[in-house]
Amino acid sequence: MARMKGQAYVLPETLIDVIQLITFIALFVGTFLIFTTYNLVFKNTIEEREVSDLINIILGDRCLLANEDGNYFRGIFDAEKLKKGAPCVSLGKYSIIFEDIEGNVFSLGSCNSIKHSLPVVIKNNDRFNLGKMVVCY
């Protein structure tokens, strides 16, 4: 179509209405997906959050941590205290297993399925051994 000087091309009103409708539908569907996805993620992570909180509490539990001159060392557990198996906090439905690189295993409860594990240090007399802490059901 040839244009003449001074002639402007204007989109038909029906095309503008169609573009507005498509934009509205896209925004509606996007908003719906954002809220439903958030709701699903939130419901799934409540248990994950409980485990994370428990790990933080155990990493600072004075009944299990190694100490020297009144100073407690976060994340460094005393083997003698782990043998007693008496944390200061209630573990609830979870249990914790400590295992060092030498194969010593210290259990606080019975483990059915592993949820999380993280590296820790276990002090056995004057030796510091690398180990892991496993949180399970």
Give a structural overview.
Strands 1-2-5-6-3-4 form a six-stranded mixed beta sheet. With 137 residues, it is α+β, with helices and mostly antiparallel strands. A hairpin with a 2-residue loop joins strand 1 and strand 2. The protein has one domain (13-136). The mean pLDDT is 82. Helix content is 39%, strand content 31%.
Question: Which terms would index this structure?
Answer:
137 residues, alpha+beta
Q: How would a crystallographer describe the biggest sheet?
A: 6 strands, mixed
Q: Which word captures the global form?
A: rod-shaped
Spatial gap, N to C terminus: 74 Å
Beta fraction: 25-35%
Order of helices and strands: HEEHEEEE
Helix content: 25-40%
Number of strands: 6
Q: Outline the low-pLDDT stretches.
A: none
- Rg, Cα atoms, Å: 30 Å
SSE class: alpha+beta
- Mean pLDDT, to the nearest integer, reads 82
Q: What count of structural domains?
A: 1
What's the quick description here?
The chain is of the alpha+beta class and 137 residues long. It has 2 helices and 6 strands.
What order do the helices and strands come in, and which of them pair?
Blueprint: H1 13-59, E1 65-68, E2 71-78, H2 79-84, E3 95-100, E4 105-108, E5 114-124, E6 127-136
Parallel strand pairs: 2-5
Antiparallel strand pairs: 1-2, 3-4, 3-6, 5-6
